[in-house]
Amino acid sequence: MIRFFRRIRQKLLTENQFSKYLLYAIGEIVLVVIGILIALQINNWYQQHLERELEEDYYCQFLEDVNQDLIQLNEQVQYTQDRLHHANKLLGLLQIGDGDFEEILEHTKGAVSKTDAIITPNMNAFEDLKSSGNLRLITDKNIKKQLTEYYAYEQGLLNVINSNAISITTRFKEKADRINNGWVYLIESQNGFDSTLVSVEKLKALSVSNEEITLKHMNDALAYIASNSRNLEHLKSLESNIFLMKATLETRCTGKN
Q: What does residue 14 show for φ and ψ, rounded to 5 degrees?
């Protein structure tokens, strides 16, 4: 092809047809420019195609993170419901004066169980997007805004939920008076004391009356019920937020559903 055009140029110059040669040269330049523009357009199209694939991949990563959040949330809902059940069972036993100390303390421990199993939001894809400078790849401004608001809302609400859960454990561990809350009777019933080393009677002498012990446990049960019921409300709100984000991302993660 190059030789063909070269022969044409040489023929025009040899025949001294300068005007035709000039037109030919202009035409050749135009063809070269058109070729360059076409190549650039193809390159731009290919680059945009790669970016759209990467954008969709990010949407799928976001969706995976949100699904992991949902798994954690479902576990936390179950833990919270279990604690709430034990707290209500505890308060019910105390109200009717039914159940021995062993049963009461069993439900007390159940009311504060798994409070250390806090939710940690999954932000791997979002952090990668920001740190890599690829935030521009998210072309849908509404989704970009929704993602930002989702993580801000999630983090804020989880701080409250985790704080409430920790407060339950703190109340149990730091404020619990083992002697005046009936632990002496529980340990005795489980044959936990070595009578050659410990005077159980002296420990009992330090204990308050059963009525006072009951009031202490009722106060604790009320606190456990309040904290866990608040957390259930927060978890339901968080669940709604997760499902909204999940539904949006599922429409964009089309290749991996």
A: -65, -40
Q: Report yes or no: 111 and 90 within 8 Å, Cβ to Cβ.
A: yes
> Is residue 209 very low, low, confident or very high in pLDDT (cuts 50, 70, 90)?
low
Pairwise CA distance, residues 201 & 41, whole Å: 92
Token pair for 117 = 């199993």
pLDDT (average), residues 142-163? 90
pTM here is 0.71
Report the C-alpha gap between 195 and 198 in whole angstroms. 5
- Distance (Å) of CA 2 to CA 9, 31, 150: 11, 13, 60
From the centroid of its chain, how far is CA 189?
Answer: 44
pLDDT class of 51 with cuts at 50, 70, 90: low
Note down the domain range covering 221.
Answer: 58-252
Question: Residue 242 and residue 107: Cα distance in Å, rounded?
Answer: 32
Domain presence at residue 9? no
CA–CA gap between residue 250 and residue 87 (Å, rounded): 39
Q: Is 7 helix (H, G, I), strand (E, B) or coil?
A: helix
Q: What DSSP element (H or E) covers 55?
A: helix 18-96
| 37 belongs to a structural domain | no
169 neighbors 162 (Cβ within 8 angstroms) = no
Q: Provide mean pLDDT across the span 140-160.
A: 90
Is-contact 160 234, C-beta < 8 A? yes
